[in-house]
Design goal:
The chain is α/β, with parallel strands linked by helices. It is built from 7 helices and 7 strands. It has one domain: Rossmann fold. It is 33% helix and 20% strand. The protein has a 7-stranded mixed sheet with strand order 1-3-4-2-5-6-7, with helices on both faces. The protein is globular.
């Protein structure tokens, strides 16, 4: 482990899951950072890499937990929030939209929310669900980091062009995209440093 690790994990505790809008959520005032993306985008792999615990995100994947919001206390300093993956192609349209009330309730009513990490797969164009989510987050004015996953799947040359395309389709600059690979570990420390900055900053929501 490198001495410059911006986020050394000293403790990691599963606090529980929130199953539906209005139901139980942890009673904690620690700053929260939430991770969101479509199913299969590589969220579990990214979270495992981020906290350097292979078994970590498995808890979010156990039956009954995949559609919940799962909360993890990190170093007794902040809470990492794993939002359910959306837009799973094999479920019905009705089922697909099930995530909305739960996520909207969480995102609108969590005053200690310091930021969101939106994940996008480098090989896929942003889906309608991705764009809806980004619009919603822009409306909330919550800081958003965009992590572009699975960058190891492209060559260095392909990647440059692809990052530009993605940035253009999202209307942001390429410097706002954080390349990430759970396979090679690329981007882990940059993401960790960005998270630490978010949770240590003064809350954006307090004027
Ligand atoms: P989730 O549904 O968003 O939690 O996605 P997972 O983390 O389960 O990953 C979905 C699939 O993508 C799995 O087959 C992973 O092995 C693969 N995957 C995830 N991250 C990476 C990555 O950085 N590089 C590569 N090559 N594959 C990845």
């Amino acid at each position: 482990m490198s001495a410059e690790d911006p986020l050394v994990i000293r403790s990691l505790e599963f606090m529980g899951g929130m199953a539906a809008a209005g139901s139980w959520r942890p009673d904690s005032q620690l700053p929260e950072v939430a991770f969101v993306g479509r199913s299969n985008v590589g969220k579990s792999s990214l979270l495992n890499k981020l906290v350097r615990r292979k078994a970590f995100a498995r808890v979010s994947r156990t039956p009954g937990r995949t559609r919940e919001i799962n909360f993890f206390r990190v170093n007794d300093r902040f809470v990492l929030v794993d939002l359910p993956g959306y837009g799973y192609a094999r479920v019905s349209k009705e089922r697909k939209q099930e995530w909305r009330p739960l996520m909207e309730q969480y995102l609108r009513h969590t005053t200690q929310l310091r930021g969101i990490v939106q994940l996008l797969d480098v090989r896929r164009d942003p889906s309608d669900d991705d764009l809806d989510m980004l619009d919603f987050l822009a409306e909330l004015e919550v800081p958003v980091l965009i992590a572009v996953t699975k960058v190891d799947k492209l060559s260095a040359a392909q990647r440059v062009g692809r990052m530009e395309e993605l940035a253009t389709s999202l209307g942001v600059g390429t410097e706002q995209l954080l390349p990430f690979s759970a396979q090679t570990g690329e981007g882990r420390d940059d993401l960790a440093a960005a998270l630490v900055e978010l949770v240590e900053e003064d809350p954006w929501s307090l004027e």
